[in-house]
Amino acid sequence: MIYYSFLSNPVNGRFVGFQNYIELINNNVYRLALGNTALFTLISVPSIILLSLLVALLLNKNMYYKEKLKASFIIPLVVPVASIILFFDLLFDTRGVLNNFLTRMGGNPIDWLNSNWSMLAIIIIFIWKNIGYNIVLFMAGLAKIPTEYYEAASIEGANSLQKFLNITIVYLSPTMFFVLVISIINSFKIFKEIYLLAGEYPHRRIYMLQHYLNNMFIKLEYNKLVTSAILFALIIYISLFLLFKLQRKIGRDINW
Amino acid sequence: MRKIYITIFTMILAIIMVFPLIITITNSFMGDQEVLGNYETVKSGEVAQTEKYINFQIIPERATLYQYYNVLVVKNKYIKMFWNTTFIVLPLVLGHVLVASSAAFAFSKLKFKYKDTLFFLYIVVMLMPFQVTLVPNYLILDRLNLINSYQSIILPGIFSAFGVFLLKQFMDGIPNECIEAAAVDGCNTFQIFYKIVLPLCKEGIAALTILFFIENWNMVEQPLVFIKDINKYPLSLYLSNVNHFELGIAFASGVIYMIPMLLIFLYGEEYITEGIKHSDIK
């Protein structure tokens, strides 16, 4: 496959060096798709991590019906996207429920799926769908922190913010790292939701790298497909490699 | 008192999480007129001149099983698509559990050259989005003449890396002494595998089966590329092309489609959480 990326044509092609790569990087659609994927990952991953951490901390508190409430955060994980996509369709439509709410509050209706807001709509669906996974991981991580640490800190007069920063966050960092990796991987799977909601050619703000690859495949533009697939794989590989290196370094610092 | 406040707050969040499901389920019990009446402004297709917006209606005015009757009896294409999904997913999951458990055993308990490198490659491939590995997959399937058949989805699925990785995590938890003791008692490798390792990671296998089932029940990308014949589509893909006048049917078939998943959730929630916890990369 790497070999193909250097040919003018996968079938009986001649060797063209890096020409495919240069053409690809100068391609506007490709750059749009790459930029959208990067933007989506950079916004959605931190927000899902933050939200799931907050919910996990909340669920760790004393409350009634704890197990039942916890379950309702995990349910979206098992429900097929296709089954509830109609709900989101009706929610985000120009004449949809969300705009109904907005106009009643005195705001202006937004064309959710055909404007720059579409990114926000997709991020909301992403968080709804995947938050359960992170919550389970965070709760498992929280359960591993010995309660003695908190007791000792209380005796020494630490307030709850100090306890949170110096105990919870520090000892949660291995979990945090894994949640980060999983969230990044899940963010690359968003194609499914966008495709079901908006088809092969959604609004340009949510035209992802996966759409580009998929459409190059349909159009039989194999050299673009192969080249961009390799670049995509390379980007993922390098960012994961850097993340793992970072984790080793942090892991040594806190001696966990 | 504080406990009550926390419960109420969490409950509100929980309701937001299950709201899409509730709407889908309750709306599936509405007759055609009611569904279309509620959502007609959205789905009429033309640019509406009116300043009307739709609203979700939670409780049907007149509950009816009409849509289900439609899906199950009158328009059998939905139910056919449902079976399409089943025919793809069942062999896929069964095959994958078989392959993955033996591969995980090898990676976890046997010694061979380049084991770590090979396992690392496995993980890297697992982390790649489907579209990245599309070309090599397609070329191989094309060479084998499997495009447009279910094997084109099932075969790559069976050999996916997910289960190998997950089961290795479970098997790493089995102490090596167990295995050495069995070897001393005269078990060969195969006997060790199915008499000792497999029974000990029953929980892991259950978790894998459930998680992989859920993942594949939700598949969109593979059939989109490998299946050309729309009659062979799984329901997940077909539901996105639902006609505007079939909203009621779409709700009902969406509900039918998620019932197996909800049942799995009801009976296997602990395996789901166990599986997720073990997917920790170290």
Give me the CATH fold name of the domain at 43-207 in chain A.
MetI-like fold
Identify the CATH architecture of the largest domain in chain B: Orthogonal Bundle
Number of helices of chain A: 11
CATH evolutionary superfamily of the domain at 43-207 in chain A: MetI-like
CATH class of the domain at 43-207 in chain A: Mainly Alpha
What is the number of beta strands of chain A? 0
Overall pLDDT level of chain A:
83
Beta-strand portion of chain A reads under 5%
User: Using only CA atoms, what is the Rg of chain B?
Assistant: 24 Å
For the biggest sheet of chain A, the summary is: none
The profile of the biggest β sheet of chain B is: none
Strand content of chain B: under 5%
Features:
heterodimer, A: 256 residues, mainly alpha, MetI-like fold, globular, B: 282 residues, 2 domains, 14 helices
Provide structural commentary.
- The complex is a heterodimer of chains A (256) and B (282).
- Chain A has 256 residues and is mainly alpha-helical.
- Chain A has a domain at 43-207: Orthogonal Bundle (MetI-like fold).
- Chain A is 73% helix and 0% strand.
- Chain A contains 11 helices and no strands.
- Chain A has helices at residues 19-25, 28-59, 66-78, 81-92, 97-104, 118-144, 147-155, 160-187, 191-198, 209-218, 222-254.
- In chain A, helix 4 crosses helix 9 (191-198).
- The longest helix of chain A is centred in the last third of the chain and has 33 residues, at 222-254.
- With 282 residues, chain B is mainly alpha-helical.
- Chain B folds into 2 domains: 2-44 and 62-73, no CATH class; 76-278, MetI-like fold, CATH 1.10.3720.10.
- At the A-B interface, helix 2, helix 3, helix 4, helix 5 and helix 6 of A face helix 1, helix 2, helix 6, helix 12 and helix 13 of B.
